[in-house]
Write a structure and sequence with these properties.
Pfam families: ABC2_membrane. This protein is 74% helix and 0% strand. With 245 residues, the chain is an all-alpha fold.
Amino acid sequence: MSALTKLIAVEAKLFLREPVSLFFVFALPIGLMLVFGLPQRGASGDTPGQHGEQTFLPSLALALTIGMLALFTLPMALGIYRERRILRRLATTPVPPGFLLVAQVVVNLGMGVLGAVVTAIAVRFLLDQPAPANVPGFLLAFVLGVACLFAVGLLIAALAPSARAAQSIGPALFFPLLFLAGTWLPRDQMPAILARIGDYSPLGATVDTIGAAWAGSGPAVPQLLVLAVTAVLCSVLATRFFRWE
């Protein structure tokens, strides 16, 4: 077993030992869908507006899973490792410190994919809704949403001076993004400029593109491009400013 594989295995065990992280990935998205989706189970979906779309709750639940991992779990874990000088100690061993960064991303990505699968199954059998109709479009939207949000999380980890700061910056960014995605107030009821910003925000674009593909349509190309550009830009900045100690 290679050093990277061992690191990934260790990080996966540590992740599974954290009940809060598991709650974010599995329980919270499914609970959200059950609370808001069961009263509408079997409804025709004729309610106008963003919240009336059948695919809004499932796509929001998936975006919530990705966003929690990217903006809460990932920056906090890397901040703790830097604060405790784990990265610095790794630099004195044959194992490159970058391996730990790769292991963190792989574990969180794997948990995000697993959470998405569980959410999709829950949508199908608990809410009696069909599986994603446009599978290639769904996969493309999901991958770009993950890349975008994880890149933002890595940028937070790169800029945060401490684990406590990372714990504060992540939620401070996450909840405004959640609002812009239309969670509490549908975007069709927002002022035009605010709704436009929400359309191209990381969570808003992720929710829209996943929802469109789930319904069988093609994800909007401008939103996919924004996700891709944000992923590349934040990744470059995270690489530029990341500190190992």
